[in-house]
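Bench log, entry 3. Co-assembly request; chain sequences pasted below exactly as received.
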Amino acid sequence: MDAQLRALADPRRRDIVRLVWGRELATGDIAARFDVTRPAISQHLAVLRQAGLVHERRDGTRRLYRARPERLAEVVRFLETFWDERLALLKRAAEAEAREEQDRDDPSPPDR
Amino acid sequence: MTTHHPPIVEREVRIDARPEIVFQFFVDPARMARWLGPATTLDARPGGVIQLGVSGVHGGSGQFVVVDPPRRVVYTWGWDEPNHPIPPGSTRVEFDLTPDGDGTILRFRHLELPADAVDDHTVGWTYYLDRLAVVAGGGDPGPDTMMPAKSA
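Structure output for the full assembly:
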């Protein structure tokens, strides 16, 4: 998860992932879309591949890339998990306070 | 003027506590520390700063947009960590509190900000998360309209 977030922190790498979303492109096709050198693009692709965000396939001397949506969905799950944990804590804390308030207002034992 | 994205995360939780109690957990630092994290700054009024040290995920910050006790709280949000893909000002969280007997129905949404409201370098990420949420739900995000087609 950390490696994925770091890989996606770079706007150029996000652009690359969008470019190969749902289609497979060679390094040269990808580099042609950007105003940076081909080695720089290769470096970005290496980071994305190491983070598991793109799949690499070799065809002769060419390397072809496509996005891996199943891994990218983990970023969304990061947020879902974060909020599920926080909202559960909120529910617990607020309900504890409501019970304390009720005990103060109505000190009679609950088993009566 | 602006196009609103579908929420990244949307939840509905019933809490056995009145909205007046639940609302305090958004505006009182001691109570906020019990669920979201200890606040460095918590200026709960429109335009006021919210800065939290969210445990384990580093600190985040934003600005209050709506503070309407005990019904609604909205603030912008992002993580302060350098190079985090969700920087401050890029997303927005909304909490709506509705009375339900002696309890509260809490509706929560974490949304991306409209593209024209955020810095250019964050637009890619927010648009991208939008597509991710669609794909994660088994849908087709449609053609990519963000990527400038320099060559066909």
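DSSP finds three helices and seven strands in chain B. Residues 9-136 of chain B form a domain with the Alpha-D-Glucose-1,6-Bisphosphate; Chain A, domain 4 fold (CATH 3.30.530.20).
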